[in-house]
Design goal:
With about 325 residues, the protein is of the alpha+beta class. It has a 5-stranded mixed beta sheet. A hairpin with a 2-residue loop joins β4 and β5. It is globular. Bound molecules: 4-amino-2-bromothieno[3,2-c]pyridine-7-carboxamide.
Length: about 325
Amino acid sequence: MTEQEAKKRIDILKEELNTFNYEYHVLDHPSVSDFEYDKKMRELKELEASYPALVTTDSPSQRVGGEPLANFQKVTHRVPMLSLGNAFNEEDLKDFDRRVREGLDVEEVTYVCELKIDGLAISLRYEDGYFVQGATRGDGTTGEDITSNLKTIRSIPLRIDDDNPIEVRGEAYMPQKAFVQLNEEREQNGEELFANPRNAAAGSLRQLDPKIAAKRNLDIFLYAVGEWESGELETHSERLEYLQKLGFKTNPEWRKANGIEEVIEYVNKWVEKRAALQYDIDGIVIKVDNLEAQEQLGFTAKSPRWAIAYKFPAEEVVT
Ligand SMILES: NC(=O)c1cnc(N)c2cc(Br)sc12
């Protein structure tokens, strides 16, 4: 086989494997068997071993990186990562809504309600359509470069169909099933157990060896943007739809709410339904949907005036 023929075959295999990966990990709707997937991955790795110059950063064979890092480099976020004010009851939510309506001088506001994922806030940077850097939130301005660990999360696309520099933010988390399995393994090995899926996700993403992170079955939901050079949209809900169109995993439970009464309805629904989820949530995030209105409201010293986190009461720990 000539190098040109090898490149053609490698491009086909990359396209197929990245698509199978998207179907399995983002859509939860695989179109091929694991056997079929593994066979094509083996062929890709053999071709890349014969033609190392043809290995590219978006190749699915590159998800589990090379050698362990000595340490994590610091990353300065071009756009600071948010922290949210909290609401603990309906009164707090009504106060928030009152401040927003007064700030915008309107009678009623359209909000977006989203589940507050109990994981680790993450920022993903794409340039020319390639995943180039992933970082932790850190203190909101400076985080740690954990690109090699984030590449092991199969639902993170290595390539997207938008060549503008964009940053997408979300929450990396460990599904409850993965958490139980991990602690069972640790118990058998006499290792210290993780207290909860959030700590397990944080501990996994802080591993210097990506091969360990790759085994932790982490996942991610994306829900916001940082630096954004792509076409401007009018609302946050349109952004969520665009992120999904780009191939990012967004949480399917987000809903628009017309006025605070619909927000309260959504919150009360999830106080009941949260136990049925396969991942931990610790509240609901409520955002003003219109982006111009967000701009108009701006920020306090610490957090946006156009969003709030309703925190669920801490669950009683059954001992
Ligand atoms: N959907 C969201 O906006 C969202 C979900 N889950 C979270 N843990 C957080 C945290 C911030 Br800050 S926003 C947000």
